[in-house]
Design brief:
The protein has 249 residues and is an alpha/beta fold. It is built from eleven helices and ten strands. The chain folds into two domains: 2-88 and 201-247, 3-Layer(aba) Sandwich (Rossmann fold); 90-200, Rossmann fold. Strands 4-3-1-2-9-10 form a six-stranded parallel sheet, sandwiched between helices. Strands 6-5-7-8 form a four-stranded parallel sheet. The chain is globular, with a radius of gyration of 17 Å.
Length: 249
């Protein structure tokens, strides 16, 4: 069974991409809503939370792990997973973005992701990467802020780069694709035509390449705190899905 974890709903964007390529895979998903968002956590806090997340997924039957939280660095997830096979976000993204070599890319992500430099280290040798941390956005998405509030957050963030031009906008948090339309609209109003990239597809490609994707197609969700937003997103993304949602750790 493939295990996927995130601080909440963001990893659903990765799960959705995996499900397209691997409709029969059995998947366990843990969303740590009680401790969301992870993007404002310290490295020590992230290490502790990640270790707990991995153990929960293993207790659910997972034998292979996808870290669908960009705020968790490769070093942190490797330390937490031990011998369990792991796929994290940055290396598949680096592989997928090779075709954009030399392009100017605006990376938007949480402060923890930007501070860890995981994308700068993975992509900076072949892309002109401009990292922009956005502290409010992941939490606003997770806890159901309306479209006007998401737009306000994006306009304020992009204002810091007014006058710049970019070829590509990289969504460096798995929550961001859940409001992709708003992000794209605000980005194009500020910077002109930019291509928006969601790393989930690159991660899904890696999952089907190296993980066991056979099974019955069942999905087991566990969340550390109940959330109507999470339940609504699951039913919206997987309306015909064979799934169960549990609450608790």
């Amino acid at each position: 069974m493939i295990g996927i974890f995130d601080s909440g709903s963001g990893g659903l964007s990765v799960l959705s991409a995996v499900r397209v390529l691997a409709p029969k895979a059995d998947i366990a998903y843990f969303g740590d809503i009680a401790n969301a968002p992870y993007g404002v956590r310290s490295a020590n806090q992230l290490a502790s939370l990640t270790k707990a997340d991995v153990q929960i997924l293993k207790s659910m039957g997972a034998t292979e792990i996808v870290s669908a939280c960009n705020s968790v660095s490769p070093a942190i997830i490797a330390g937490a997973a031990g011998e369990t096979p792991v796929i994290e976000m940055t290396q598949p993204t680096a592989k997928g973005l090779r075709r954009f070599a030399g392009k100017k890319v605006l990376l938007i992500a949480t402060p923890a992701t930007i501070d860890s430099k995981i994308y700068q280290n993975a992509l900076g040798n072949f892309l002109a990467l401009d990292p922009l941390p956005i502290a409010e956005l992941a939490g606003a998405i997770e806890f159901g802020s309306d479209d006007n509030e998401i737009s306000r957050i994006m306009r304020n963030a992009f204002e810091e780069r007014r006058g710049n031009r970019y070829d590509t906008l990289l969504l460096g948090c798995t929550h961001y694709p859940l409001v992709r339309g708003i992000i794209e609209r605000e980005a194009r109003q500020m910077f002109g035509l930019v291509e928006c990239i969601d790393p989930a597809k690159f991660v899904a490609d890696e999952v089907v390449r190296i993980f066991n994707t056979g099974g019955s197609g069942k999905m087991i969700f566990r969340i550390s705190k109940d959330s109507t937003q999470f339940r609504s997103r699951v039913s919206g993304l997987f309306p015909k899905g064979n799934y169960l949602i549990e609450v608790g750790v």
